[in-house]
Amino acid sequence: MIENSILKKNRAGLRAIGMGLTFPSTYIVELAGEAGFDSISIDGEHGDFTPESIEATCRLANAYGMSVTARVPNNQPSTINLYLDRGIQGIVGPHVESGDEAQALADACLFPPQGKRSFGGGRMLLNVTNDWGGYGDKRGYYERWNANIIVVAQIESKKAYDNLDGILSVKGLTGITGGPHDFAASLGHPGEPDHPERQRLTADAEHRARLAGKDAGGDRANGTGLQELLLGAARTFAAAHRNDKSSAPAGRAGSARPKARKR
Question: Average pLDDT of 233-261?
């Protein structure tokens, strides 16, 4: 287990820089490491990740000193544990709508006594043969793990907003994040994530979270995604060169199909 690279950056008073992925690509993870990113985040809810690809992502990212976080497809403890056993060091739980659900999310992410996470196999077993990662015993490992995990509840409905006080009261919860599209739809504004009511309620939720000592939104990291980077640069390049004149001489061989000879 490496030190959580996001928390490490935060302790220095800085936000981490994160690369988001919606599909597995160790090549992109490698490029992100070479470019100086601090962390990788994967989207397990809307992305395309298998346990094998999650583990491969974590192995390479960790080799570059980058922690990997994930939005999980659901908040079932078995699903969360599958991700954590691969080496994930931050969990975003989607569609959390009550204090009880937030508590269950935190319990699934944290080892006892702070939580109820099950101890199993996966990459964790590497530490068994290495003096529990240098922490002496299983108890020391548990304490180190709990100090290195980020647990975030995604607030993306009116019901979640109405139950926000209960969600923010969960001790094991690191913070909250938004879901503007689903939140807007739950408010009766489908397809309008920038609707003023959605923006107002999200701003209020983030303010209340910070007052409660929790993170909100991008407090810990600035993130971008491959699509944003690639499409942004590609569109800029295409726009800049769309009307460039060709310097090739007219009638160059191969530019037109030769006419058939008459016999």
Answer: 77
Return the CATH architecture of domain 5-227. Answer: Alpha-Beta Barrel (3.20)
85-118: pLDDT as tens digits: 999 999 999 999 999 999 999 999 999 999 999 8
* Residue 5, token pair as written in the block: 């690279």
Active site residue 46: yes
**262/164 Cα distance (integer angstroms):** 84
pTM of the predicted structure, to 2 decimals: 0.87
Token pair recorded at residue 66: 């980058």
Q: Which residues of 65-100 are buried (b: 16+ CB within 10 A; e: fewer)?
A: ebbbbbbbbebebebbbbbbbbbbbbbbbbbbbbbe
CB-facing half-sphere around the CA of 159: CA atoms within 13 A:
8
CA–CA separation, 105 vs 107, rounded Å? 5
> Would you list the domain boundaries of the chain?
5-227
Q: How many contiguous H segments (helices) and E segments (strands) does the chain have?
A: 12, 8
Count of CA atoms in the C-beta half-sphere (13 A) of 246: 6
Task: Choose, from 46, 95, 189, 241, the residue flagged as catalytic.
Answer: 46
- For 20, phi and psi rounded to 5 degrees? -95, 140
- Cβ density class 129-142: b for 16+ within 10 Å, e for less: eeebbebeeeeebb
Report whether 104 contacts 85 (CB < 8 A). no
Pairing of strands 67-71, 90-93: parallel
